[in-house]
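hey so u asked for the seq, here:
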Amino acid sequence: MKEIKFRAWDEKHKHLFQVQEMGYSEGKLWTTNRRNGYKHWNCPLMQYVGLHDKNGKEIYEGDIVKCLENHGPVGDIETAIIVSFNSFGVNLQEWIFNDKSTYPEIIGNIYENPNLINSC
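ran it, structure tokens below
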């Protein structure tokens, strides 16, 4: 069973944090982290997708990963994608996890590294 956990982006202080607790009050979502228990209001949440990159780092929605994409007879081509959930699950193809050398590698995320989005 996949572990369910989240991280969030604090736009005001420009940092990601692991979500320890979340709730809803006054019409807004709030989250807290382990560092200080401070309530962060309406921070974008990113869910852990249950997979690790080639360096063992947990992959979350919003991560930008470098991976190999299968192009049939042409072979594999290195590309970067933004991790997201869709109606079929996570947009990372299962075949990229067959061999440790083809595992994706996290190179950033959409909040801290918006310049990388153009490479996706």
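The chain has a mean pLDDT of 82. The chain is about 0% helix and 45% strand.
lmk if thats what u needed
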